[in-house]
Amino acid sequence: IGSTEINLTPLQDNQFTNCKSELKYFQAAVVGTITIASPTFGFARSIQNENNGWLAGSHEWTETITKAVDVVTGPNRLYEQMAEHAREHATRHFSWQYQNAMIRSGLFGKNSAKLEA
Prior knowledge:
mainly alpha
């Protein structure tokens, strides 16, 4: 995925796809690839439209892909900025080293902060 500029993750918007994680966004972002995704629950929580990727409703895919291609092929550095925002966001929110509080909460419950040394 690191050899591509745009990662496409179209999903129907339904109960099943809203239960899917934003893993495809994370996998692309950590290697500097920008994602266009359907605005399902996980993707809408992770992607800030036109900042670290794009969200595209079912009727917006053609327009959004056209915008993305323009960003990739354009003379400005917008693609690099978006890719860096995506990488920073994915690293800050999904990397293992930032999951300590969540792991403690899952293992020890709400009051796990008291267990910090």
